[in-house]
Amino acid sequence: MRLRFLTQRTLSKLVRAIAIMSWLGGNFLVMQPVLSVGDNATPINPAVSPQNSTASSLNITWASGGGVETYYRIQKSIDGLGYPAKFFEVKVPTTNFTYDNLLPNQGYWFRVRSADNIALDSPYVAFGPAYTLANNPAIPVVEALNTNTLNFSIGAGDNNPATTMYFMREMNSGLYVTNNATLGSKPYVASAVAWQGTKVFGLTPNTEYKFVAIAKNEEGTNSNGSPTAERFTLAETPAALSVAAITPTSLKFSFQIDNNPAYTQYALHEVTRDLWLTDQGTLSAQERGWNTRSVWRNVEPTVSGLLPNATYIFEVIAKNGNSVPTAFSAHSTVTTAAQPALVPPQPAPAPANPTPTPNNPGVSPTKQPPAVNGQTPIKVSKPADTVPASVAPKVTAPNTTVVSPPTTISSPITIAPEQSRWWWFLAIIIPAGALVGYGVGRRGKIK
């Protein structure tokens, strides 16, 4: 059988057998290996698969060199200089291996070779360092310093090495915290120590911002984002209240326009007694009525149950979306109106005497005769809505009593004097309507 028909594998075995026989016969032959004769090809293109690697593992991949190897041997080093005797083996055709229990953002070196336990192993092919991913950061610490500034720190406890770098992204806008302390398109990348106390300016009052921290490993590969830190800037301190209406027992207020957004809530505080205006318009030591400007305008914040002519001091406070209050506004000092004096009801005025007319003669006063012996003759008058004078009773003789039918007197009756003697006539109208007359003297004349 001619040599050219021998396969490389058979030839390799034949060479090894000759060497063994020569050694056994006492004539040991030193033979230099000829790689072209071997059957284990060196692996090619070793690398790390990022999509299958984590902060604690690295997935190593390679490609076959085209030999007839039956397995591969892999080793790991932490510095690329020395490799431990320990190695891992994977059988053909597998061309990857995953190392677990590694440290985050840590560099490692690897080497791999092919073998078959018969022919010579292939040379090692090494590469590195390959870095694990950084651990996902802890939630960042975001503090509101004022109405337009937030302060940042990287959350502790992610177990990343000190060399790990971080950047911040604002999720509502998609912008990053930049190196000039504003929000922009180019992120500021720095270590956790450098991030302590980093500020962002140019924000708006009582506005919610959502920040995520992202870590980079030494190769620049990003970790997943941290949990989201949601924070509002502080609300702007309100202006002093304006008084819209004053009564003896109530005060009505109005709000001044400020730069806070419409959802900002406000509360009214009565300073002297440390009381708060409730939603019902009363003052309470325990309950606070927090409402937006639009709600307060709709209900027109009115403080009731106050004392007349009393002075009160009011102030207003706002809070942001995280319920962090602002400072109090300037004071508004207001005095309620005085209580008006009570005026007793006045009686209705008496009606004036009507003016006599032909159809309504009314009451006609009669001229009063002069007094005689200290006595004034009487007069009898009756309103015009009575019977005619023709039916009036007549006196027939002195010292007699005349009883007439029930009637009234429609015209005045007077007793006139005759010469130097007077007769007096006394007329009494009793409820039964009877007229009783009494005369004194011997003669009398009735007109």
Structure description:
The protein has 447 residues and is mostly beta strands. The protein folds into four domains: 44-131, Sandwich (Immunoglobulin-like), CATH 2.60.40.10; 138-232, Immunoglobulin-like (Sandwich); 242-335, Immunoglobulin-like (Sandwich), CATH 2.60.40.10; 371-447, no CATH class. 6% of the residues lie in helices and 30% in strands. The strands form eight sheets. Strands 19, 20, 21, 22, 24 and 25 form a six-stranded antiparallel beta sheet that branches. A four-stranded antiparallel beta sheet has the order 4-3-6-7, with no helix packed on it. Strands 13-10-15-16 form a four-stranded antiparallel beta sheet. The longest helix has 17 residues, at 8-24. The chain starts with 7 loop residues before the first helix and ends in a 7-residue tail after the last strand. The model is unreliable at 1-11, 14-37, 380-398, 400-404 and 406-447 (pLDDT under 50).
* Amount of helix: under 10%
State the helix count.
Answer: 3
This entry's quaternary arrangement is single chain
The third-level CATH topology of the largest domain is Immunoglobulin-like
Question: Averaging pLDDT over every residue, what do you get?
Answer: 78
Distance between the termini: 194 Å
Alpha-carbon Rg, integer = 61 Å
Low-confidence stretches: 1-11, 14-37, 380-398, 400-404, 406-447
What coarse outline follows from CA principal-axis ratios?
rod-shaped
Main beta sheet: strand number and arrangement? 6 strands, antiparallel
- Total strand segments: 27
Please indicate the percent range of residues in DSSP E strands (runs of 2 or more): 25-35%
CATH superfamily of the largest domain: Immunoglobulins
Secondary-structure-derived class: mainly beta
Q: Which CATH architecture of the largest domain is right? A: Sandwich
Number of domains: 4
The ordered H/E elements are HEEEEEEEEEEEEEHEEEEEEEEEHEEEEE
- What is the CATH first-level class name of the largest domain? Mainly Beta
